[in-house]
Each structure stands twice: as C-alpha cells, then as structure tokens.
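ok so for the tutorial part 2 we go from a plain amino acid sequence to predicted structure tokens. step 1 is just haveing the sequence, like this:
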Amino acid sequence: MRFAFTHARVLAPQGWLDDHAVLVADGRIAAVLPTPALDAADLPRRDLAGARLAPGFIDCQVNGGGDVLFNDAPDLATLERLAAAHARYGTCRFLPTLISSDAAHIAAAVAAVGAARGRVPAVLGLHLEGPFLASARRGVHDVAHFRTPEADFATGLDRLAPAVRLVTLAPECVPAGFIADLTARGVIVCAGHTAADYATLRAAAAQGVRGITHLYNAMSPLQSREPGVVGAALDDDALWCGVIVDGHHVHPAALRLALRAKPRGKLFLVTDAMPPVGGDATTFQLGGLRVHCRDGRCETDDGTLAGACLDMASAVRNAVAQLGLAEDEALRMASTYPADFLGLADQYGRIAPGAAADLVVLDEALAVRETWVGGERVFAVVTHQRSVG
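step 2 — the prediction. this is what the tokens look like for a chain of 389 residues:
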C-alpha cells in the first residue's frame, strides 16, 4: 500500500520541514519531499493541513495502562490492552515492564512477549526491572522477590532474541561476570534501584551497563565527597539516562542540570506508566500495596511514589514547559533518542527513508490527533484532516 501525508510540518532528522509530504509504502517511509513534488503522483493522500508530523514515540518503561498492570497478567491480552491505551498518546512502540517478581512470572512475561511477535507490533521486547535490586533503594518493589540471578536466567532471555531484552539491576547485587554475560548475549543492561557508589557504577559501565533507569530516582545521590550513581551517570558521556518528566519524580532544575551535563541525545523520556494511564480507575493494587493516582501522582497510602500517571505526550509537553526545551528536541527525547538507546536507529525514531512508518500527528498544543504504526492508523481523535482521492 502506498499513500502520502501531505501539507504537514514534518520533524525530519535535520529539523522541521514546512509544507512537506511523507510518502509511505508497505509500512515504511519511502520519501520525504515538498508537497508540490507530489502534484503529478496518482496515489491516496492524507492532507494534514499544517499539523505537526513527528516520529512515533518509543517508551522503554511501561508497567501498565488501560486499567491493567503487566505484573498482574503477563499475557498477550494485557499487551494488546497496553498497546491500545498508550497509542492514544502517540506511543507506537514500547517495552512492557515487569516489576520485580518470581521466576514463574518472569517466564510468563517472556512467553507473552514471544507470542506478541507479529501480533502486537507495538511490543519491541521486554524490560525486566528487577528482581536483582538493592533493598536500600527498593522504592515500591517487593523485597520478598529480590534475589541473586538463577543459573539459567540469561539463557531464558535468549528465547526472545532478536527482540529487545532490557534488564534493570543493581550492580552491587549480582555476581562477577553477570553483567558481561548479559551484554555478550545482546541484552541491554541498565543500573537502577541501586545503592552502588561511584566506583562500583563506573566499574559496571566498563562491564557493559549501558544506561540508568529513571535517573535520580531510587539510586545513590550526588554528594560532594561521594558522587554516587547520579554523579557517575552525569560524569560518563557514554551512559544513557531515562528520565520521568512529570514534575513529581524529579525537580525540573535537577533535570535541566542533567541536560547540561550530558551530551545531546543521551537523555530520553520514559513514562514509568501505571494502569490509570489511558484507563478510568484511579486506584489499583501493586502486590500487596494500594496505589492511588492523585493530582498526577501515583502513590501508596503512605505517600511513596509508585510508578507514574504519565503518558508520553504529556511528558513531551512537560519537557517543553518545565525544562525549556524546544518542541523538536522534546519530541526527539520521546522517539529518536530512545530508538538510539535501544540500538534501533536504523528502524525507528526518525522520519527518514527506510524507517518504519511510525508517526504521530500533533496539533499546535502538542496534543495527539492520530497515531500510526507501520503505516496503519491505530488511533484518531477527530477527523480534522481531509482525505483526497
């Protein structure tokens, strides 16, 4: 199938292109060219009337959405529900995230992601956040599930190759050689929920740790004589950092400092989304804890943060309003940079020939009007565009 988006303001790798067309063929982007260049072409068109057309969002940390939690039911039906819920907010691809759990739940999550291949295109792979974490930085993770890796843990993840496999762990809680083994198998390793000191984190980076899960949260902080994980993350240009920009997890000033410290492109947006995102419920259960969504916060009865009531489109808008970023840079933090982090720059995160036709149509307020995955529309809010023969 060939068709074109026309009269769009296109976020191309080189920046905004006004009054441009994006030609889609067989689920991929075939060309980006000025709209008048299509005048003689006989193909269906979708006139966007000047709306913004950006690369589809990629979320590396989705715990829930649409009133379901992946931990509660790590199966194909849940993945379908998550994909539909987050498509409303421009997320075209994501990593379902399993919070620290037992071996049976991990096996079920692996099986679900394997079953999703070819059936839920939005699912890029699996993110295991735990269970190899530090009790001192547990957050809302259940310490009853914390343990050292089983002998067959890594081989179990091999079943998902070549899908993305991301593991968040505390470097001080795994045996020597474990990080290097995961990395050699193509697993992306991030440090998170860790009490490691600066030296330990730097050593883990040398062994293969590629990134930091939700920078600043659930990790040893930056201090004058002990830089901690935060200091190591900001000091190492090679490390990628996911950030939750909801105004609750991290003060905007701290995020602005991180933006100045890190090379451009090394910070990317994540939602850490919980069931209320794209759903109706404002209360849910996380293990034995009751969690409430109040004033944009997901918190337990005692006020502990438990994931986020955040969608990716809101994260983009927050990055503009709270961090002072230009719209194009905020949009790249939701698309281009996570694709780069995952090693998928040749397939996703860009409106360029050869990339998947994952696209989000946004209005002037950066509200999502349409979401397209592989050239198929999966969400539309109102028919403000017009189609022509």
